[in-house]
Amino acid sequence: MKLKEFLSLLNPLKGIIQKNQKIQNTDQLIVFVKERSAWITQITLLGYLKTRMGTQYVKAFENKELMKSINYAKEKIYLTSIQDLVLYVISYMKNNNLSDLTEQAASIHTKVIDQSANLPLSQNEIFKDINKFETRLSSVNWIDFYKNNPFDQSCQALFTWAPVADELKQYDEEIVLNSMALKWNNIVSDFKKLINPIYSSFNNDI
Length: 206
What we know:
Helices cover 64% and strands 0% of the residues. The protein is mainly alpha-helical. 32% of the residues are buried.
């Protein structure tokens, strides 16, 4: 497999971020969540695999079973990233007097997935993900969520599902988790810059 073909594995996640798109309503919030979740999935999974496989990583992707594992990992990481980011933005907005979207959390989450139709997500994984999100909603603390490791589950998903041999993974956990956490910090910074403090329409457009 050539490098170009390898990059195409995650091509649906490439080049989709509208960096200067202000967030002024829920539609734009949904786009932000979808784009940033896709971006962090691509950059972290690809980066980890390249680091671990070194110069052999392109050749390694000729293995069909490995390809299946990569695609499965991509699904898991992307869906968990959506969950984390939906919970983060709603918690942040509520506690910074921007808007209270807590009652719309499930709807926003579902709409992000619906807008991901261009990605190869299996219906079975989507069903499991929606159930998992509903469970998280039942116990989420909206006051504290955005301040207390809000992206822990997606970082763990990267470490858990990345198709890297266990004998190598055992040395990687801290580095992998910290690397993804730092990239989430960039997304949080973007969110705070793009969020519009005037949200008169936010509660009425779900």
